[in-house]
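WARN no homologs supplied; continuing
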Amino acid sequence: MGQIIVVKIGTSSLTHPDTGHLALATIAALVEQLSQLRQRGFQVVLVSSGAVGVGCARLKLSERPRTMALKQAVAAVGQGRLMRIYDDFFSALQQPIAQVLLTRSDLADRGRYLNAYNTFQELLRLGVIPIVNENDTVAVDELKFGDNDTLSALVASLVHADWLFLLTDVDSLYSADPRKDPNARPIAAIEKMEDLVTLQVQAGDRGSRWGTGGMATKISAAAIAMEAGVRAVITRGQNPEAISRILAGEFIGTQFVPHPEPINARKHWIAHTLVPGGSLTLDAGAVRAIVDCGKSLLAAGILKVTGEFESQEPVRLCDESGQEVARGLANYSSSELERIRGHRSAEIPAILGYAGAETAIHRDNLVVL
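OK structure emitted
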């Protein structure tokens, strides 16, 4: 099978900024490009925003909904219209498609995560292009991806993609906002995660009038992709033919070089898909053992337990300044950890009244950030 490509297109590229109506010429060009890639042997997944924007236009709303209930209702109106447009265009080129609607809870549950993986594998094997969107109609705030940039990066990790294309309304990532700074220069490549830390502070986080994303969310998505070993690209959505040129070796837009030693799929799932239920503050020795030596977390190194969570739920691991250094699945609930924190592993059975795990978080379930 050929390389797997995930393409994410945002609302700002799919719609006209003044009206929110669909930009049919852009959609037609994108559909033609993706169909050609399928014919050349690539496996393609499309992550498409636009349901809420299209719903707003359909209902003649003057701005994006602010309440969750209204947004969900508008998304329900827009999603059907959006898929109808895609189906018409793809059908004209005899390319089958499928609609896949996901919530974060779908991917946070390990069993459903693996089911989603199997479904994507079968769709790609059948030559289908899955069209993915967040299931806005049922998603709740605390379990939302927040934006389709993040969703696309998690899907790219899920399907073990080779490429993630983030199509937006600018041609590349710039050193500053080119609309405000005449000295802003395009950035051709990001090779190290450390480069992203600086850029994340500089990037604006506001999207278009009809969308939710911004450059900051794209940089975060690219970071998620890099850790999974996926090469990410930010380029202009109005010129989807650039995808083929980039695959042919041209340097267009901004490319994010994948990490040479990506973390394994399970640890990537823990780090980026799960929503932490609390946090543990660690002493300096525990931080060094985890970060520098790759060891498990012992109860003796825990200074403070924050939040309420059950055993096997994800938690943040923070140093004494509050900086998150790692994330993992706790072997004990928050109430149990409150009782055993600061104690040696040999003391745990006497404190709890039963023999539990020797570690608070085993290194196999722990990811250094």
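Residues 205-213 have pLDDT under 50 and may be disordered.
OK
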